[in-house]
Amino acid sequence: MNSRSTKTLSSKDERILNALGIELLSTSAQANVSRVQALLNGHAPAWFQDQTTGWGALHFAIAGDEAGAPWNAVDELGNSPGDVAISLNDQECYELIRDAGLRSEFTLHAIQSKTSLTALRAEDSTPAGSTDEFLKSKLVYRTDENGQEVVVIDIGGEEVGVMMGWEKPIMDATVRALCPKGISIGGRGPTILNVGFGLGIIDSLFQSLNPPPSRHVIIEPHPDVLAHMRSTGWFDKPGVEVLEGKWQEFVKADRIGELIGEQGGFDVIYTDTFSEGYNGMG
Known about the structure:
Blueprint: H1 11-29, H2 33-41, H3 57-61, H4 81-87, H5 91-112, H6 117-122, H7 131-136, E1 139-143, E2 149-155, E3 158-164, H8 168-178, E4 191-195, H9 201-207, E5 215-220, H10 223-231, E6 240-244, H11 247-250, H12 256-260, E7 268-271
Parallel strand pairs: 4-5, 4-7, 5-6
Antiparallel strand pairs: 1-2, 2-3
Helix pairs in contact: 1-2, 4-5, 8-9
């Protein structure tokens, strides 16, 4: 049983919760909505997960998370309720879970902006929470065990991915959404600003547009990334401008002209920086 409570339970209480949790999973699998609701009203643990598979109520029922079951819990194979819904080709259930996740994340962001949680994160002096520490850290470009290129950083003796090759499908969908069928304005390609190069996945996708970008600006501050960009020819690509430094430096009054150029702005702006949250974008 996966207990989320810090309160010490008696063996009797633990047996009761375990029995309620097992019944909740079984009832969820049977789609017995009225019984599921009765169990939840009777304080059955919505967070309960099967000990063997790691599946929770949402994995079995692919239902909403209003009762408190986490929308993004994963089983022992790393599958979320949304993954289960997609595997069953159940678009309606998938969208319910997706929307619940969006509500949860937006609510969490709103709460953090008004509580000390933001202050706690601001005190994180590791590369994961501090831009200055990140820029002083060593980045390593390598190929993982699956043959995909990754960029990793050492944080407290643990390798943390800065950019991973598996993100390419996400980036591809992003480019298609931002540039449907390419963007041609007066016969020219779009003007594009990207903040944060990483593996260069999204920049390569932008470059593959037809027509290609008429101006493609990349802002990148990390010296290891800049060295990688030089070695892979990004500084020599036609139409590509690499601005070395933090994006905050280029929105100041004395440098904004360098950023926006003669065209006065960008058709597409994309940002995916490391160790920065939404609060840092203000």
